């Protein structure tokens, strides 16, 4: 059914889109004070709506850059604010919004799109694959000590929120180097400012200074009982240690904050070595592993050419993309790069599965075992495991 129109919203319509999105998540609309801040998180021209003639669905995006395995950066669109009015769901409104958005991205040279999904079954059909994952862990502050071999250089400095909001954007840019990391445009920092200023607990920051200046930071707040027995948790909001010394130095600070029982590190990279810097690694307990970014290769040839590959014999893959059919075709992937080819394909997969393999989070052989890759040559599958592997776990750390 398509008895609705999709168009870009004017800034004067952003608040209606925000209200619709919030209602779809079962949260109340922003009040006037909150909206004044929230409005700054909308990139002009970045919000689309479905009308019948009332606004019945919306999706928003902002422009940034994404780091791929090997360190190159390419244009990306961050997708958020997706919602359809409860009395208009399951009639194709999301499909129409997603299709319009992806066609717009493809038309203006965006290479990747990414999002955080409210529910896992929604976005795979549009080509978004679960590309980065996280683990959340907690550290028992009273019993945890750093291992004596943990680096002990550098200094930390505590910042109140106002200063942190000025300093952190500059510090962050030099630190977001993992595959899956992204630049943070102004709209994102405005979003974080709004969240921090609304927080009932004071949000603070700590910056680690190494030999060449700031090389890591954490933002955090402390919550819990305000009366005896003072059971409190320190919750990390944003944590970017740029060097091993910054990682150890920031943890040394966090474990030294008084009147805290537990430090909760939410949504961290799967390979972050907390166990290795503690004297007793069992003082860190993994609470859960979850989905982080769902990524869409909007321009498959450009995305495949942008990343580095491991050292193995070349593999030819056939990619299918029903939503952006220009991406469909056969590609040769080798340690020297990747591009289109006429050679016969050894592996066949859809664009969603390609995103899962591309960031190294899922090995091609595991994807094949789960039925997601059709294997015509088993030797090629073993080579694909090596070609697509990444040296560090892909992870974004930027949530919106
Ligand atoms: C990036 C973000 O902003 S994440 C936030 C997403 N928003 C929410 O979760 C808010 C609450 N949910 C909603 O607003 C809506 O249900 C949406 C946006 C998830 C889906 O909108 P709809 O207009 O109902 O989706 P639409 O009718 O276009 O469905 C497209 C397909 O997705 C499927 N689908 C849609 N929603 C879901 C879901 N929640 N779970 C599983 N499948 C779903 C449909 O069945 C349909 O499948 P088909 O292509 O096989 O026919």
Automatic annotation (TrEMBL):
Pfam families, alphabetized: Acetyltransf_17, Acetyltransf_9, SCP2_2
Catalytic-site annotation from UniProt: 123 (proton donor), 400 (proton acceptor)
Record key words, sorted: Acyltransferase, Transferase
Highest taxon, organism lineage: Bacteria
HAMAP family: Eis
Assembly notes: Homohexamer; trimer of dimers.
NCBIfam families per the UniProt record, alphabetical: PRK01346.1-4
Protein's name according to its UniProt entry: N-acetyltransferase domain-containing protein
Organism: Amycolatopsis camponoti
